[in-house]
# Entry
Amino acid sequence: MSEIKPKEAPAADKKEATTEEKDWAAAKAHFENLKSTKPRPPKPKYAVTIAVSSRSLFDMVAERKIFEEEALEKYVQHQQEHENEPLKPGPAFPFVKALITVNERLRNLYPDSEELFDIVLMTNNHAQVGVRLMNSINHYDLTIERFCMTGGQSPIEYLKAYMTNLYLSKDSKKVQEAIEEGIAAAIMFKPDVETQLSDTQLRVAFDGDAVLFSDESEIIVKQHGLDTFFEHEKQYENKPLAQGPLKCFLEALGKLQKKFYAKNERLNCPIRTFLVTARSAASSGARVLKTLRSWGLEIDEALFLAGAPKGPLLLKIRPHIFFDDQMFHIEGAKEMGTIAAHVPYGIGQKYNKGKLTEPEKQQK
Amino acid sequence: MEDKKNCTGPLMIALQYNDLFDLDSISTSTDTDALPKGRAFTFMKAVQTVNERLVEQNKSDCLLFEVILISKECSEEIKTKIVESVKHYGLEIGKFFFCKKEELINTLQSNKVKLFLSTERDDVYEALHTGIPAALLYDQADDHVFNQLTVIFSGDVIGFSEDSLDGLSEFGFSETQIETIKTAKICMKEFAVLIGQMRRRFGQENSPLCTCVLTSWGSRNVCASALKTLREWGLDVDEAFCLAGAPCSPILAVVKPHILWDGGLLNMS
# Structure
């Protein structure tokens, strides 16, 4: 979790390095031969890799029903029969489109750089379902060239093999496993109402505690109440909080933002980040800003709600994705039309609307 | 009563003895009765599992795997040891061929081998070059997984268009290498047809045979093309990976295939 890209696997012996270079050269050959203007995907070790599941990228609610109610065979058969019918967009679709827009801008400014977003379709689905997925991707002309269809196997090891920076899925178990393995991940929720989103700027909103930062302060709130929390935060204002699961993703976004600033595009930057926290600016907010500064990270807008509901504010921001660790906020966001992504991390998972849902386990 | 429709087998695979047994560690081996196990051991066990499951479903199924063992240049002593060791481990080896190095290709051709499997990239490359279906025996197969045989087909070999393949010459690939890739596609087809028939004897879950497509260089259209072609040949693969140039060794390390059909692509040096 501490690096943008996991350290390169020690497979760097000479022979493998040459094979990898040959693989890269052959891929270049293929793309150059495609008499089209299709851009070539970047080298994973320099790119920000986002893995999306099929159900996050596309709306497969009806198909999922078949899978759950009838046998696997029936589900695969159904998908094959409807192979040429493109699927409708899912919750992660606007986010993916925004990533592609940023890539276009980056390629314009830095034609030879490999520091781009790399989107991988990471699905548990059987390869035969893959044909429908690929047809759908073709239909929307999305720049997704990398796939992993595991035919039922767990995607966790593959996430590492594809050097994933962020994993989006509708499956909470897989997302939890990914977070435990140190990969930033979140569970996607489709909003109840559709909102008009920017098609020129990628807008990403983050909650603070237990998303960008660890859940250490949230533990204090839950166990000792708000007053203790305020005192504690004031006392430790200058001590940076520990990292949370999405910190590295914010860092990766920041790195790409700086590329635009370097070319005088600050005012026209196609990436904008938001912090939407229940903390208040007057008291506990300072620690958060100081922590970000100590990490060398910038966030474009920091919004302190002092406990007010996040829904209405998010509606004003209109992010392509909003990360929060508490289902309470996710539901609030969803109801008002914001695409929300639940980060199942930290003490907030044991509580629902402020009440403990499971008995306290022994502290480690 | 024999079901005539089923009789397209056996699916003959040739192995070399130095893949089945580890000759380098003979001196350190404590077992004097048999040669130490080599890299092809898990492959043999997986193949035997598939055969058992096939026979379970249909006693008279004749589309089974048959493995023959080829030995180049070995002493009489080793020859005896090989036969004894095979018996010792209870391996189902159909035939033994002891021949000279130069006779390898002929032996393979005259026995209508459907697949020559080796960890030696050069041997695989040479066989493909003469039109013999050959694939890599991946040498990092999981030592503990015996209940499933995993086969990977190269999506690049199957899905790349002729033009794209010819274009490779500008990127350091020789004419011979490009021709070998084209030959590999033809060889793969026959094998894929048989594997497809075998695969269909089992359901989607709990199958002892797992088939995959790995597109290392090509984009999604190459991968989609490979999937559709394999389907036309009668094989619905289970897993698919499309890398568009990303390194494939991390993926192979997760999949851990036994048989890797790369058409001689991955050994370009």
About this structure: The mean pLDDT of chain B is 86. Residues 175-199 of chain B form the longest helix (25 residues). The beta strands of chain B are 11-16, 65-72, 93-99, 115-118, 134-137, 149-154, 209-215, 239-242, 259-261. Chain B touches chain A through 51 residues (CB under 8 Å).
